[in-house]
What does this fold into?
Amino acid sequence: MPKQKRKYVLKMRAKIMLVLLLLGYFLFVMAEQEIALSRQRADIDSLVQRIEQAQYDNEVLKRQIEYTKTPEYIEKIARSRLGWVKDNEIIFIEKKD
It folds into this structure.
């Protein structure tokens, strides 16, 4: 007599448990990915703000560099740091007590 192959039949309760386990696993993976994505979005926002701040700082520095090339700035520095005066200009020096 030939052996009959047995079909492996899952009980309904086992099927439900398997489906719930798979569903739970996929929900867990999705939650982890969503958390990782939100962290990455926050990092991107932070980096964008830092880039914008750096661009603003660069513009300020460019304006300062251009200002240092003007005659007004050169005169201001010459007067304040080197004590230069124009012809026929009188400077009053205040005595300290």
Q: What stands out?
A: The chain has a mean pLDDT of 90.
